[in-house]
Specification:
Length: about 160
């Protein structure tokens, strides 16, 4: 048998080989001084590594208890409730601001109509409500596109 390499010796040491192959390697190690020395070095390296690992201090840590988890859950619930409260408050503020803006828009529209009527009176030197004062009514029929189909003045002075 040829001399063994480190991988073969490692596999033998770890008992990863078939029984027949392990017997052959064992007999070779017993008969070959070079492989026997390599095997002893490998064992020493492994034992030294294991010893150095056992000297390493593993930092201690606490396993959380049920009580600490419950306390954390309670504080999370408070945070969750506070977050929901803030969201609801923001939604209410948004609705109030939106309603205020819409209300101001309609008030502005009414003022615009009043201003147009006043401008008409000033420009034409007449009252746009003359038909109302004379008990006349204007009936306008318009289409779906807003075009005037028929416009009639009805006199209701009797």
């Amino acid at each position: 048998m040829n001399c063994l390499n480190r991988i073969e010796l490692q596999s033998y040491f770890d008992n990863e080989l078939d029984v027949t192959i392990s017997r052959n390697i064992k007999s070779h190690i017993e008969s070959c001084e070079i492989c026997s020395n390599m095997y002893v070095e490998l064992k020493d390296d492994i034992h030294n590594t294991v010893d150095s690992i056992s000297e390493i201090e593993v930092p201690s840590f606490e396993i959380p208890t049920i009580d600490s988890l419950v306390k954390t859950q309670k504080s999370t619930d408070r945070t969750y409730r506070l977050t929901n409260f803030v969201k609801i408050a923001a939604a209410i503020v948004f609705i109030i601001v939106s309603l205020t803006v819409v209300n101001n828009y309609f008030k502005q529209s009414e003022k615009t109509i009043e201003n147009e009527l006043l401008n008409y009176e000033l420009a034409n030197e007449s009252d746009p409500n003359t038909q109302w004062h004379n008990n006349e009514f204007v009936v306008t029929l318009s289409g779906t596109n807003g075009e005037v189909i028929l416009s009639v003045v009805l006199d209701n002075s009797n």
